[in-house]
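Handout, section B. The chain below has 128 residues.
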Amino acid sequence: MREKILVGGYTKRESKGIYSFDLDISKEELSNLTEVAHVQNATYFALDKTKQHLYTCAADENGGGIAALSYKRGKTELLNYVTSVGAPLCYVAVDNKRGFVYGANYHLGEIRVYKIQKDGSLALTDTV
């Protein structure tokens, strides 16, 4: 049985963001490592219920936030990147029923609430 796996991480050296690879469980084998998104420090991410939008915690020199990407047939396109000054987020979850994405910042003790727009991009609506 083969599954597509997404992985991300910090981009300090050679890594460029989010990658996919195939995991063959029966053969215990990984193959087809491919970069799918060039997003700085893409550490945590979640797909929406359609699996056509990918939301990832990311950080750059301006702070941390969430990048929204379209994800179709293994290809991505950046829709938008909503940042806030301060430490990067360390959790992301999609609320498909209500149409929100939530991000948590443990360093600042806050939760950020983003409204999912029609095209899958995000708009920050609240910080708690």
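Note. The longest strand covers residues 29-38. Compare this with the example in section A.
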